[in-house]
Amino acid sequence: MSLIDKLENGQRLGYDEGLALYDLDLFTLGKYANKVRQKLNSNKVYFNINRHINPTNLCADTCKFCAFSAHRKNDNAYTMSHEEIMKIVDDTVKNGTKEIHIVSSHNPFVTPQWYLEIFKMIKQKYPFLHIKAMTAAEIDYLKRKHALSYEQTIDLMINYGVDSMPGGGAEIFDESIREKICKGKVSSENWLKIHELWHKKGRFSNATMLFGHIEDRSHRIDHMLRIRNLQDISLQNNQSDANIKQGVSLGKNELKGGFNAFIPLVYQRDNNYLKIDGILGSQEILKTIAISRLLLDNIPHIKAYWATSTLNLALIAQEFGADDLDGTIENESIQSSAGAKSKNGQSKSDFIELIQTSGLVPVQRDSLYNEIKIYN
């Protein structure tokens, strides 16, 4: 059966077929990716009201693509106090924020309890806030630095108020690439293991992929398929657990735990040591987003993260398989440090107006994609 026949019939694609998708013209890819998107999410474009907080940028690791992290002798290094963090939370709650997204560097001078107390303070004061925090890379660092097992850290995160995990730290799973761009960081195997453990707790997370640097298309396809494989495992594990506990066969939408969304992150070139010549073209970005929608048949949402692709391209991506823009953010430090025009976030009204102008339906969601308000 030909690749087009498989796309027409909605059949699952393998590695060679995934790679061959890049050879299709952009509009053919868009046609089939949008068909899947419409089936899963109709013409809705999701966004949430969130606030990113990066409590510290002091980092023990040196990832060549990173412009955010700093070291002890760097004048730009900082570590916020708990009071400073809570002041940010207090202010953003007044703006209607529903999610606090907390990601930090691998700071060797703070304890795991320092992080945990942040989560506890937020959740105790604002129990309605969804806390998305601690990447798999951060969890791995705590194991290396403080001898906390993955399981121990995950249990502590949950006990102190973390609701879901972000997808950071995945970069590209190919270890030869990781050796060059983020040597010493969590391995691809352990990144996947940590998310599997999180899913086994009945919790949700996201998955990212950093592309447009020294990787090639084959690495991207391999990365997506590893994500798909773990999602298969997580859904199967939770289906089995549900059957054991309830004695019934649950549908996919009733399962708990797994990846909510896949987020292809476009590499930002400024202020880092990777030194990539040239800019990844919009066509290659849109093709990669479309292919992720076609390959990741078991992940409900594809996010075109506007902070790395520009808002205009992220809106176009909604017709190439994506169905989510992320959120208002308010203050974005990681991507903007590397050149992205995302420092000051985006307003809710701008999201709504731009989505409607695109002929799509804006939907404000919570962190787990429950719909809060549809703007028809």
From TrEMBL:
Q: In which pathway does it act?
A: Quinol/quinone metabolism; menaquinone biosynthesis
Q: Which GO terms describe its biological process?
A: menaquinone biosynthetic process
* Binding residues for S-adenosyl-L-methionine: F65, E171
Annotated ranges, domain Radical SAM core: 45-300
> What CDD domains would the database entry show?
Radical_SAM (cd01335)
Q: What UniProt keywords apply to this chain's record, in alphabetical order? A: 4Fe-4S, Iron, Iron-sulfur, Menaquinone biosynthesis, Metal-binding, S-adenosyl-L-methionine, Transferase
> What is the uppermost EC class here?
transferase
Looking up HAMAP family in the UniProt record yields: MqnE (MF_00993)
Protein family membership = Belongs to the radical SAM superfamily. MqnE family.
Query: Which PANTHER family did the record assign?
Result: AMINODEOXYFUTALOSINE SYNTHASE, FO SYNTHASE (COFH)
Q: What is this protein called?
A: Aminodeoxyfutalosine synthase
Species lineage, top-down?
Answer: Bacteria, Pseudomonadati, Campylobacterota, Epsilonproteobacteria, Campylobacterales
